[in-house]
Amino acid sequence: MNYRSAISSDGHNQIFAQKRVLLLRMVRGARSVTRSEIGKSLGIDKSSITEIVKPLIKAGILREGMADHPSNGRPSRALSFADGQDHFLGLNLGVRRSQVGVMTLNGDITEEVDFQTPSDADAALRMAREEILHLYEKHRGRRFRALGVSVPGTTDPARRELTYAPNLGWKNVKIADGLQIDPAIPVVVENDSTAAAMYEARVRIRQSEDGRTPNFVLVRSGTGIGAGLVIGGEVFRGGAEMGMAGEFGHMTIVAGGKPCVCANRGCWEKYASAASAASLYLGDRPPARGESVPRFVEIVSKAENGDVRSRRTLEKIGDYLGIGVANVIMTVGIPRIIISGRLVYGWKFIKDPMNDAIGRSIIGRTKGWSVEAGEPIGSALGGALEVAAEEFLSTL
């Protein structure tokens, strides 16, 4: 093979692999989909679909049977995954609490374990490994394909290490090495907001009429704020040198504002995260003797019972959230924003002030932008499990 034909072959293989992953995502998202639906949605011709599907059916990964809903009143055949043996393990490593779970290839979470996150990285990995091993041993008969781990910080380009988690104070933690329970089960480490965006992308495939994933930015707000970008159905991680795409929680929105764990001042997450609600509620004063620091869900509960102070707190969060969202839209040029994390619990009080803040910006003078509420907690463990499923699909 000469140099030019080698390049052509390599380019063809890359495009073919991309089409295969898109097709598998659509089958997984829809659970059952016809070839004509795949072709119409993804723009893949019939011969390419056959080229992709034939070896997957032969290998026992996909099967083709009668569709549940006939097309145009006529019987049609639909593709789906062949059996229920393929499963995934996931760990969402949270700042306060962590979750370990098991998911089927179709996206059903069959088991979940929750535990408090130890402050020490080594202790946290030991506890997580024990919980993962327990689930692994409990379900020995299942075929585990990958372990996905979502972490509240940046990861290395190989997605094996946590490089920095400001809200945990951890640096350069060898996550994958510490959690490897079986050499046949790859461990993939991903930023939690990026993982949550992968989860929301699958949800959007299942909800869409054409099987496409729209471009969107997932803003995840809990202890901190992070963002995951989905462009053309793919998550965007930034350049390999830094891998910090989506770290909007640490952009400055108040000059000289509150000190942040990242050593900056006035970061977005100090004003618009679920964790920021306590300081906004107390007005930056220390709690009085015998006064407990209210949790976000407690502030939401008080607001729902008519407490004015709690409502004002959530309205302030909404205002700051809107300022940051407008900045995000202006920066990345993607007008659709999905908010996930604990902040969603107070959405009814946050939504209008947020929209008002966006309306004051230049984005408010344009058309087509939208902000919607996503999952309050489901995208956390769901994101970690989605990382595992994506690893499997990309290597088929």
Please, could you describe this protein's structure?
- It is a single chain.
- The strands form 4 sheets. Strands 6-5-4-7-11 form a 5-stranded mixed β-sheet.
- The protein is globular, with a radius of gyration of 22 Å.
- The protein is of the alpha/beta class.
- The chain folds into 3 domains: 3-81, Arc Repressor Mutant, subunit A (Orthogonal Bundle), CATH 1.10.10; 86-201 and 380-395, Nucleotidyltransferase, domain 5; 209-377, ATPase, nucleotide binding domain (Nucleotidyltransferase, domain 5, 2-Layer Sandwich), CATH 3.30.420.
- It has helices at residues 3-30, 35-42, 46-58, 121-138, 175-179, 192-207, 269-272, 277-282, 296-304, 308-332, 347-360, 378-395; strands at residues 33-34, 62-66, 77-81, 86-92, 97-104, 109-116, 143-151, 154-155, 162-165, 170-173, 187-191, 216-221, 225-231, 234-236, 336-340, 370-373.
- The longest helix has 28 residues, at 3-30.
- The chain is built from 12 helices and 16 strands.
